[in-house]
Specification:
Layout (H helix, E strand, L loop, with lengths): L4 H11 L3 H10 L4 H11 L1 H7 L6 E9 L3 E9 L2 H4 L2 H17 L11 H18 L7 H23 L5 E2 L2 E5 H12 L3 E10 L11 H9 L1
Antiparallel strand pairs: 1-2, 2-5, 3-4
């Protein structure tokens, strides 16, 4: 169903949730704003979003080494040192380090991405989609219009590959990393942010035999 931009705006103002979360909530509730408010509250998204503006300068830096072949350092921030010592928070940080090792994201979130990179990827996907339209007797304008509709879904797949928060959680693919983070914020009651990470892999950028170390990490986490 088509969701009105005005409804998304109203829901954002009422709950403080992000645009994509609001749109999803409206889709799940048939466009009913009141039900969408309840949906966001039940998911813990509304409360978590209101905490997003708080300063989070405490936290942990976690390291993870897989077989001496893949190494990860990740910084996850909390508002207080008390939460940083919480076992559930520590487990979350460990899981995120292993997630990065296994799934090899380039960014924490879409906000970090360069607009030129996003535009380039979009144009590549549009060109591919237009090539798929070849032989359908469509003029270029019509072909591009159809291609642009296809590309939205393909761009979501692209974000899932390169953005940590958009990735499926390696321990439970039905859950996104962002959902995991949101649920933890709602449960603990403090703002929590995955601030930055670095990932190294032996021989990265050098010619070598094909070895899927990321698959090894994913298997270990299961």
């Amino acid at each position: 169903m088509e969701i009105k931009a005005s409804d998304v705006k109203e829901l954002r103002q009422r709950t403080g949730a992000g645009m994509m979360d609001c749109k999803k909530a409206l889709m799940e509730t048939g466009g009913d704003i009141e039900k969408a408010v309840d949906y966001l509250r039940e998911k813990g998204i509304a409360g978590a979003s209101k905490k997003a503006g708080r300063i989070a300068a405490e936290g942990l830096v976690e390291s993870y080494i897989h077989g001496g072949r893949i190494g990860v350092l990740v910084e996850v921030n909390s508002e207080t040192d008390f939460v940083a010592k919480n076992e559930e928070f520590k487990q979350f940080v460990r899981d995120i380090a292993m997630q990065i090792a296994a799934a090899n994201p380039k960014y924490v979130s879409r906000d970090e991405m360069d607009e030129k990179e996003v535009s380039h990827e979009r144009e590549v996907q549009i060109s591919l989609a237009m090539n798929e339209n070849a032989g359908k007797n469509l003029d270029e304008e019509k072909s591009r219009m159809i291609a642009e509709k296809k590309v939205e879904g393909r761009m979501e797949k692209y974000y899932e590959q390169v953005c940590l928060l958009d990735q499926a959680f390696i321990k439970d693919p039905a859950v996104k990393v962002n959902d995991l983070l949101t649920n933890l914020i709602a449960k603990i009651g403090e703002n929590i942010k995955i601030r930055r990470f670095v990932r190294y892999e032996v021989g990265e950028g050098l010619e070598k035999r094909d070895e899927d170390f990321a698959a090894e990490v994913a298997k270990q986490m299961q």
